[in-house]
Design goal:
Layout lengths: L3 E6 L3 H11 L8 E6 L11 E4 L5 E4 L5 E2 L3 H16 L11 H4 E4 L1 E8 L2 E8 L23 H22 L1 H13 L15 H11 L11 H20 L7 H22 L2 H4 L9 H7 L8 H9 L15 H13 L6 E4 L3 H16 L2 E3 L2 E8 L5 E8 L14 E3 L2 E3 L12 H4 L21 E5 L6 E4 L6 H4 L3 H4 L4 H8 L2 E8 L20 E2 L8 E4 L19 E7 L13 H18 L10 E2 L2 E2 L18 E5 L6 E2 L20 E3 L13 H16 L4 E3 L5 E3 L15
Parallel strand pairs: 1-2, 1-16, 2-10, 7-18, 16-25
Antiparallel strand pairs: 3-4, 5-9, 6-9, 7-8, 11-12, 12-15, 13-14, 17-20, 17-23, 17-24, 18-19, 19-20, 21-22, 26-27
């Protein structure tokens, strides 16, 4: 029997996961012939990173990337990829022989609060545990969150009770309030608290833990009793504690946490989530839903941080926070209640080095073919409901004596992706480097480099199935012909209702530590912070990566902060024929970065600012580039394939599942498809890739939910109460 030819378009997380899962099946070579077609010289999509050989092989990321402790599917793939590379000696001498070497626990999160005109840092330390995501043998006690909405109610109650107890033991004002609560709120006598604490909160937690896991088996009236009791505790606590909230950080933060938790629990119980899943509230904005369910502190530093982490600003406008309540609530609960090992995990090198190198090496060794420098421009549908052809521009050709393009370069024992192509392997090297071209970036849609030919892949001859793994922002161009050929109007609904935005970032290399610059949140951990001022509201301290770069002692690099945020749409966006456009947009972000350093950063690093101006001598600038800010890594993601997909209210029901492309031979893969986690993140992309492999081969038959709970593949898409028909 002839092999099926599979064309995989794009090299991001979703596409590479699909390829990895297909080729992880015994005997796959007898059934499939797989070719990946990738824009430019590297894999990664929005997760691509590059090494700048001219400046100490420094790591230059597309964005700030942190892995969450609930990324069971993503860590599962990485574990198997690293094991495969080690067992086949594909990365000899690597400092990361195991995926456990490639990641470090990151339990520290900071949240800024503006209180009485002063910025205060709210340090949040999430206790690590001995579990390891991506493995089948958890070592800790099971989480109270079993992955169901009722399990999350239990987990929320356990969390707020533990936080309440912690403050009771150390804050006299809170202890006095506890005495008042004990006097005023005695109820649920058979569920008394323990360890000397016996408020209604303790009794509610015990009451919830005693109820069956299946809400359908709860005694009549039990949910009403729980809500009445917890609501009474919530209201009485605010009445007693709120007068002290502005002057007492611990009390203020406790009220925010407990009132937010009350909104979660009330909404889960009253808005159909127990019966219909998180999709029941997906058409409502998260903060609006939370306020409607009784949370007294909306917005709060906690909710703003959630929007910032998801770049959830419609059109990139900071005034337009928009997030589907179901996806946001589900994602937040997965993060807080089901993390394993640590709330978050740092990668110990760049995203490209840590993630895409082992996947690439494994796939190439297995026999997957990679065609780099191939820009997909159009999918051509047939009249019979399939993809008839794929049109591709050739950006460069590999020299005949080279044979197969080798995209990697060694840096300190790691095989890494360079920040520009390995030109010596390319026929057109001279033209690609010719300064007469204004924009020589092969990953830019605004490049004025010529195409060196074109390819038309024909169904039945060059491919039998297509896996479309290119980012959503590019689909309106690449798939422009599909809506008219889709009688179900699913493509029209998706393209019209899903949204993607620009992002912006800057990365610094400084000759002083954050502590030397005045940062003092009470811990020395490398933090992540969300919820600060625009235009860069999110900060990740990636100082741990300095050892993976080639700095000299004279460079004296002490700190590596990364700032990012959404970026506003440009109504006057230039046509792709204008190669000068990217430089104008980069200059805007460069100016934004300079202004941010001259202003808002001073509240966090007060010793970095002298007389109202940032001390530019802090920047490590071995090439003496001027102005100094230009010596650092500034990034604006404006290309269609780099845009970040949003989860605006009402949009999730328009997503297509990986196996539901509406075209017979087309399979979808990416964080823009319908999965269990409908947010722009690695875990959603990996779930989608696994679902794409299932659509093609029937395997794997499940994805992992919280704590490695196996979810049958057909149940993997988040439940949507009413799937929308396109207008």
């Amino acid at each position: 029997m002839a092999k099926q030819k599979i064309a995989i378009l794009g090299g991001g997380v979703g596409a590479m996961t699909a390829a990895f899962e297909i080729t992880d099946q015994p005997g796959w070579q007898n059934q499939y012939d797989i070719t990946v077609y990738q824009l430019g010289w590297r894999l990664g999509g929005k997760g691509a990173s590059g090494r700048n050989h001219a400046i100490a092989d420094r790591i230059q990321e597309h964005g700030l990337h942190v892995w969450m402790g609930f990324y069971e599917n993503a860590f599962d793939v990485m574990r198997r990829a690293y094991d495969y590379c080690r067992n086949n000696n594909l990365t000899p001498g690597t400092p990361f022989p195991s995926y456990l070497d490639a990641f470090t626990k990151m339990p520290f999160l900071t949240v800024p609060e503006l209180v009485n005109g002063e910025w205060k840092i709210w340090p949040v330390y999430w206790t690590p545990n001995n579990d390891i995501p991506g493995q089948d043998n958890p070592t800790d006690a099971p989480s109270p969150a079993d992955g169901t909405p009722w399990g999350y109610i239990r987990a929320i109650l356990q969390f707020i009770r533990a936080d309440f107890d912690r403050l009771c033991d150390g804050e006299p004002l809170i202890q006095g309030i506890v005495d008042d609560l004990c006097d005023a709120l005695m109820a649920l006598d058979e569920y008394k608290g323990t360890a000397g604490k016996d408020t209604l909160l303790h009794r509610v937690e015990n009451f919830a833990a005693a109820l069956p896991l299946d809400p359908a088996k709860h005694p009549p009236g039990s949910l009403d009793l729980l809500l009445k009791s917890l609501g009474c505790f919530h209201d009485k606590l605010i009445e007693l504690a709120e007068p002290s909230a502005k002057s007492n950080d611990d009390i203020r933060r406790l009220l925010i946490i407990i009132s937010t938790a009350w909104g979660f629990i009330h909404g889960i119980a009253c808005d159909g989530i127990l019966e219909n899943g998180f999709g029941a509230i997906e058409d409502e904005d998260f903060e609006q839903w939370l306020a409607r369910n009784g949370c007294k502190y909306v917005p709060s530093p906690l909710t703003v941080s959630m929007y910032d982490a998801a770049f959830a600003y419609q059109h990139g406008d900071p005034q337009q926070k928009r997030g589907g309540a179901g996806s946001f609530l589900h994602g937040w609960l997965r993060l807080m209640a089901s993390y394993r090992g640590s709330l978050m995990w740092w990668m110990n090198a760049g995203m490209g080095d840590t993630i895409f190198t082992p996947i690439y090496k494994a796939l190439a060794h297995r026999g997957v073919k990679f065609e780099f420098f191939r820009k997909v421009t159009r999918l051509v549908p047939s009249a019979s409901g399939s993809i008839d052809a794929i049109e591709i521009d050739v950006q460069a050709n590999v020299r005949p004596e080279v044979g197969t393009y080798d995209p990697l370069v060694p840096v300190k024992g790691l095989l890494c992706w360079p920040s520009e192509p390995n030109y010596d392997q390319l026929v057109e090297a001279r033209q690609l480097r010719d300064p007469k071209y204004i924009n020589r970036d092969l990953e830019s849609w605004w490049t004025d480099l010529p195409a060196f030919g074109s390819i038309r892949l024909q169904a039945g001859r060059d491919f039998d199935k297509v896996i479309l793994g290119i980012s959503f922002g590019a689909l309106k161009y690449i798939c422009a012909d599909l809506p008219a050929a889709d009688a179900s109007r699913g493509w029209r609904g998706m393209l019209d209702n899903l949204q993607a935005i620009r992002t912006q970032a800057f990365q610094l290399w400084l000759n002083k530590t954050k502590e030397e610059l005045g940062w003092n949140p009470g811990r020395n951990d490398d933090p992540v912070m969300c919820g600060y001022l625009e235009p860069f509201d999110t900060w990740g301290d990636e100082t741990h990566l300095i050892v993976r770069e080639n700095w000299t002692p004279q460079d004296n690099v002490q700190q590596n902060p990364y700032w990012c945020n959404s970026a506003p749409d440009d109504p006057q966006q230039a046509p792709f024929s204008d190669p000068s456009y990217p430089a104008t947009q980069l200059q805007i972000v460069t100016n934004n970065a300079a202004n941010f350093l001259n202003g808002p950063v001073g509240a966090l690093w007060p010793k970095a600012v002298i007389n109202g101006q940032f001390d530019w001598g802090l920047l490590v600038n071995p090439l003496n580039i001027t102005p100094p800010i230009a010596s650092q890594w500034i990034r604006v993601n404006i290309d269609p394939s780099e845009l970040y997909v949003l989860t605006v209210p009402g949009s999730t029901k328009y997503r297509l599942a990986p196996w539901d492309s509406r075209f017979e031979n087309l399979i979808l893969a990416g964080d823009w498809t319908l999965t269990e986690v409908n947010l722009g993140c690695v875990e959603a992309a990996v779930q989608s890739g696994k679902m794409a492999a299932y659509a093609l081969t029937g395997s794997p038959t499940f994805i992992y939910g919280s704590y490695r709970r196996q979810i049958p593949m057909k149940e993997a898409p988040m439940r949507v109460v009413a799937r929308a028909a396109a207008p």
